[in-house]
C-alpha cells in the first residue's frame, strides 16, 4: 500500500486552515456590495473591517494603515514607485535600493525604471551588507528625490532573518523610505511595523493559511502613501479601486487572527521539528550543506545542498518518494534553476539546493519519513558519483 504524501512546501503556500475556510464560506453567503449603504452592504462592510483589524493586529499596525490587494506581488508593484504623496503634496522617490536576495516581485522594481534600481550585496551569511548599504545611501543623489530601500524580513529560500532594525537606522538617517517584505515572516515571527522601523510592510494571506489571491500593504501612517496603482471607484480609501473580495478578505482575517495566538509557543514546536530533521540529515550525510544554519532563521525552513545533486533531480527524487518540497521560490512559473540567492551569498552555482518548509500541522512521523527519504536520495547520489 502506497504511503500518504507528505507536504513540506509551506513557504510556497500553507494549507488552508479550517477557520479561514469557514470564514470564506460564510462571506460567500452574504448578499450585497460592501460599498452599498443599505443593511446588506453594511453587513458585508463590517466583515471586511473586522478582517482589516485582525490583519493589522498581526502586524502591530493600525487598521487604518491596511490596504487589501490581490496579493504580495500587487502590493510590491504598488508601493515600489517614484510617485508618492505626503498628504496632498506630491513627493518624488529618486532611487530604489534592494538587497540582492529579494523576492522576484521586488527584484522587478515595481514602477521604477531599470536604471533607477540598484542592488545591495549580501554577506556570505546571507544578510544584507550594512556597510555597503550605508555607503550607497550616503552617495544617493538627493536632488533626484528621496531614497527608498526594500529589504525582506525573512528570505523565502533560506529563511535567514535580516537585521531590519539596523537597516531602518541607516535609512532614517538619510530621510529615506523603508519597505519590508514580511511575507515569510508573518505568522512565524512577532511582527510590529513600529518596532521594525518600517514605513510599509507587505504580507500575503496564503503564506499563513488563508486563501490565495489576497494580500495587503501595511502603512505605518496615513500621510505618506504611494500613488494608486488601480484607479476607479475609489475603494480602499482611493488607494486600490475595485469592489473588494469579501470571501478572500474574511479568510485572510481569520488566518491572521489564528496565527497571532500563541505565535511563539507554536513556532517553538515547529523549530524543534525542523532541528530534528536537520540533525537526522547530517547524521545520514555529513557533507550536506544547510544554508544559514549558524545564523538567525525562521523556525520552519531548511534550505540545503547535497554537493553534486542538481535541484531538479533532487526535487523529482523526493516527489517520487511522496515528499513535496521545492527548489526555492515558487513564483518563477515552475522553473527549476540556479538560486540567485545562493549565488549572491557566494556559493558555487553548479550545486543545486532544495527547500523544506514545514508548519504547525507537520508531525514527528512526517519529519522522520522525510529524513528517511533524504537518506535514500543521498545514498543514490553517492552511488551515482562512484559509478561516474
Task: Write the SSE topology.
Blueprint: E1 6-7, H1 18-28, H2 39-58, E2 66-69, H3 72-79, E3 83-86, E4 89-99, H4 104-107, E5 117-120, H5 130-138, E6 146-152, H6 164-173, E7 177-181, H7 193-196, E8 200-204, E9 215-219, E10 224-226, H8 246-260, H9 263-284, E11 289-290, E12 301-305, H10 311-320, E13 323-324, H11 340-344, E14 354-357, H12 364-387
Parallel strand pairs: 1-13, 4-5, 4-6, 6-7, 7-8
Antiparallel strand pairs: 2-9, 3-4, 3-10, 8-9, 11-12, 12-14
Helix pairs in contact: 1-8, 2-8, 5-6, 9-12
Tags for this model:
single chain; 388 residues; 3-stranded antiparallel β-sheet; 16% strand; alpha/beta; globular; 9-stranded mixed β-sheet
Short characterization:
The protein has 388 residues and is of the alpha/beta class. The protein contains 12 helices and 14 strands.
Describe this structure in words.
With 388 residues, the chain is an alpha/beta fold. 37% of the residues lie in helices and 16% in strands. It has twelve helices and 14 strands. It has helices at 18-28, 39-58, 72-79, 104-107, 130-138, 164-173, 193-196, 246-260, 263-284, 311-320, 340-344, 364-387, and strands at 6-7, 66-69, 83-86, 89-99, 117-120, 146-152, 177-181, 200-204, 215-219, 224-226, 289-290, 301-305, 323-324, 354-357. Strand 6, helix 6 and strand 7 (177-181) form a beta-alpha-beta unit. The longest helix has 24 residues, at 364-387. The mean pLDDT is 94.
Amino acid at each position: 500500500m502506497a504511503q500518504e504524501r507528505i507536504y513540506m512546501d509551506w513557504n510556497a503556500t500553507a494549507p488552508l486552515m479550517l477557520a479561514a475556510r469557514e470564514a470564506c464560506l460564510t462571506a460567500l453567503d452574504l448578499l450585497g456590495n460592501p460599498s452599498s449603504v443599505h443593511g446588506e452592504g453594511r453587513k458585508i462592510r463590517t466583515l471586511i473591517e473586522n478582517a482589516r483589524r485582525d490583519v493589522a493586529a498581526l502586524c502591530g499596525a493600525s487598521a487604518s494603515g491596511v490596504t487589501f490587494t490581490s496579493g504580495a506581488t500587487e502590493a510590491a508593484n504598488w508601493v515600489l514607485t517614484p510617485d508618492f504623496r505626503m498628504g496632498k503634496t506630491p513627493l518624488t522617490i529618486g532611487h530604489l535600493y534592494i538587497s540582492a536576495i529579494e523576492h522576484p516581485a521586488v527584484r522587478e522594481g515595481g514602477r521604477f525604471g531599470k536604471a533607477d534600481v540598484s542592488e545591495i550585496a549580501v554577506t556570505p551569511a546571507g544578510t544584507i551588507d550594512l556597510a555597503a548599504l550605508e555607503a550607497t545611501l550616503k552617495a544617493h543623489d538627493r536632488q533626484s528625490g528621496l531614497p527608498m530601500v526594500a529589504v525582506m524580513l525573512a528570505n523565502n529560500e533560506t529563511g535567514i532573518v535580516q537585521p531590519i532594525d539596523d537597516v531602518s537606522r541607516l535609512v532614517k538617517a538619510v530621510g529615506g523610505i523603508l519597505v519590508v517584505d514580511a511575507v515569510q515572516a508573518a505568522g512565524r515571527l512577532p511582527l510590529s511595523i513600529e518596532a521594525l522601523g518600517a514605513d510599509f510592510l507587505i504580507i500575503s494571506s496564503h503564506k499563513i493559511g488563508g486563501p490565495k489571491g489576497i494580500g495587503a500593504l501595511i502603512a505605518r501612517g496615513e500621510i505618506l502613501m504611494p500613488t494608486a496603482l488601480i484607479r476607479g471607484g475609489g475603494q480602499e480609501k482611493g488607494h486600490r479601486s475595485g469592489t473588494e473580495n469579501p470571501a478572500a478578505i474574511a479568510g485572510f482575517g481569520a488566518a491572521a487572527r489564528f496565527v497571532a495566538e500563541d505565535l511563539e509557543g507554536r513556532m517553538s514546536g515547529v523549530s524543534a521539528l525542523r532541528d530534528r530533521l536537520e540533525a537526522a540529515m547530517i547524521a545520514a550525510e555529513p557533507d550536506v550543506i544547510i544554508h544559514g544554519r549558524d545564523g538567525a532563521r525562521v523556525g520552519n525552513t531548511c534550505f540545503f545542498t547535497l554537493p553534486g545533486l542538481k535541484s531538479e533531480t533532487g526535487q523529482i527524487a523526493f516527489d517520487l518518494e511522496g515528499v513535496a518540497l521545492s527548489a526555492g521560490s515558487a513564483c518563477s512559473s515552475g522553473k527549476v534553476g540556479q538560486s540567485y540567492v545562493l549565488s549572491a551569498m557566494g556559493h558555487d552555482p553548479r550545486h543545486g539546493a532544495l527547500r523544506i518548509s514545514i508548519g504547525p500541522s507537520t508531525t514527528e512521523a512526517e519529519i522522520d519519513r522525510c529524513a528517511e527519504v533524504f537518506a535514500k536520495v543521498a545514498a543514490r547520489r553517492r552511488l551515482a558519483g562512484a559509478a561516474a
